[in-house]
Amino acid sequence: MRIFFTGGAGKAGKHAVSWLLDRGHRVLNADLVPLDDPRVDNLRVDLTDCGQVYSAMAGMAGLDDLDHPTGVPRFDAVVHFAAIPRILIAPDSEVFRVNTITTYNVIEAAVKLGIPKVIFASSETTYGICFAQGEMLPEYLPVDEDHPTVPHDSYAMSKVANEVTARSFQARSGIDIYGLRINNVIEPHEYADMFPAFVQDPSLRRRNIFAYIDARDLGHMVECCLRNDGLGYQVFNVANADTSVSADAEEIVQRFYPGVPKRREISGHETFYAIDKARKLVGFDPQHGWRKNVRG
Questions:
Q1: Does 53 score more than 80 pLDDT?
Q2: DSSP letters along 176-230, please?
């Protein structure tokens, strides 16, 4: 497939782009920062400028398009990962402005150019737990896509607003638009650096609902969404199948979630951030995990 990918140089984006390139897809990285991979085409685009977004998405992916026999081909899909990735990187108002206007610009351009699929990065933060002031408990366990999204911070607010924007564009256009509520992205080298501390102190993972997503499995999820058509508007939790701590489910519930209702039983090291929907609808099957990478 021919993919217009925003934010491909970021922590999550670079792994997803690499995954897609390894499987033969053509990727144009639209970003302010180029991705250092000789297989990818880079185009510097200010995504807050709707004219730049439209021009880039309507244009060539690379110089080889000059020789295309029928003119410049359109993109088959858009993957939108570009964003200010959390609070406390820029002022709150700027986080909200940049994240919402870039998403609007990207989806509007895709719809008007007739691109049939958009996949965009939403976030675990939409559930209001990650960046809440003080402690915020989920309304029930496991946290699935039906859980209320009432965020308390500018980053999560922007992601909820983006989901509303995406749903509106899908309703008026009929294209496929899938939102990924991505949990804490972990790169392979970070297991040895970070997870021993999580084993010693599980409370460090409370704000992430004790979940995580391996960056390679995030790439797999993007490809699952590219392969599956006709689902209209959907949001998916994206996490690995296990928790990010050594404590089992019963220990976590007793210590951190006393009194929180359970909609079904959770056992062993099963994630509290439910991925059943992604498994069922698009065939998501995460394969990488910290337990194979952290000794002791």
A1: yes
A2: EEEEEEE--EE-TTHHHHHHHHHHH-GGGGGGGTT--EEHHHHHHHHHHHHH---
